[in-house]
Amino acid sequence: MLLEVSTTPDMSTTAEPNKSSSASASEYTIDELAAAAKVPSRTIRFYQSRGALMPPEIRGRVAFYGPPHLDRLKLIAQLQDRGLRIDAIRDLLTSIDRGEVDLAEWLGVEQQVQAPWANDQPRTVTEDELYELAGSRRPALVADLLRNKMIERHGDVYLVQSPALLSIAMRLEGIGVDLVTARRAEETVRKHVGRASSELVEMFVQGFGDGAIAPREFGPGFTALRSLGMDAVRIIFGRAMEQELRKLYESGALAKIPGRAHRAHRAQRARKHR
Prior knowledge:
The chain is mainly alpha-helical. It folds into 3 domains: 15-101, Multidrug-efflux Transporter Regulator, Chain: A, Domain 2 (Orthogonal Bundle), CATH 1.10.1660; 121-214, Orthogonal Bundle (Multidrug-efflux Transporter Regulator, Chain: A, Domain 2), CATH 1.10.1660; 217-274. The protein is 64% helix and 6% strand. It is built from 12 helices and 5 strands. The protein has helices spanning 15-24, 30-37, 41-49, 67-81, 86-97, 103-114, 127-134, 141-147, 163-174, 179-210, 218-251, 257-272, and strands at residues 57-59, 62-64, 123-125, 152-154, 157-160. Strands 3-5-4 form a 3-stranded antiparallel β-sheet. A two-stranded antiparallel ribbon has the order 1-2.
């Protein structure tokens, strides 16, 4: 813990002891620092070994720490609570110490980065709530959703990872697209969009690093990027689909689809009535 000394000078002592006593008021041994920061001593040593915590002052064989070390430990704990790994914390704190990053500005950017791009969060629902969410009570619906991994059973409740995608799948089923096809379509889009997202993030990080991207303010920049990015994906996907459907029409294959669908439907009905 922090050592306490009287603020009233002792006139019977020399100036040198008073100076030493005053200095000790802002010093900690590693065990005292651990108690003040509420972390184990081994954690302090680990932070030092990873470069996240500055080294102590060594006098003789004893390591002494000061208030900056305590403040740094508190900041590390806060950043860990935000989900940062220790190496990322070290790099951030190094940039802050060099004056390259303002902590308040970074926290604003971090809040923007963590903000969801899609208003779609996992939900845990009962069976009745699942039927309500799906908008259907058709026979074997729950079994079909489980089989296609659109939901997960956990005891008496169900985890819906994406209520929005479940709604889309059910609307597709309403116009004749089975859940298997809807699931395959989701996986196809997810695979390509995931790859594109990874490449875009890498491109933007490189742009920030080499100065090609230099926003006036990072917070508003990320807010704008979110809406512009969603608009761009919608436009690019829409135009790509237009092009593919035009090619389908020009090839003549489109004219054959209704007949093939009708024959498949009749065959399916015949199998059901056997």
